[in-house]
Design a protein that fits this description.
single chain, 79 residues, alpha+beta, 3-stranded antiparallel sheet, 47% helix, 18% strand
């Protein structure tokens, strides 16, 4: 693994922060969440996180002019 433990730690913290936002009751009810990169979070790690989120089926990312990213998702119906 090429990344240093420092960047892995910051990436993990950023991922946990975003996960808390997505898992909040308000976001779960709306099936949407608005996230922003914090000033101390590296841009490349932020972009990597967004790419990983976007790889999920039934997830849509909308990039806003203010720098925020709106995440929408749908829960597929069981057959």
């Amino acid at each position: 693994m090429a990344s240093t433990s420092v960047s892995a730690g910051s990436y993990e913290r950023m991922g946990m922060r975003v996960q808390k936002i997505i898992n909040s009751p308000t976001a779960q009810k709306a099936k949407a969440a608005l996230i922003f990169r914090l000033p101390d979070e590296p841009v490349d790690e932020w972009e990597q996180l967004l790419e990983e989120i976007d790889e999920n089926d039934n997830v849509t990312l909308a990039y806003r002019d203010d720098g925020g990213v709106q995440i929408f998702w749908v829960v597929p119906k069981e057959d």
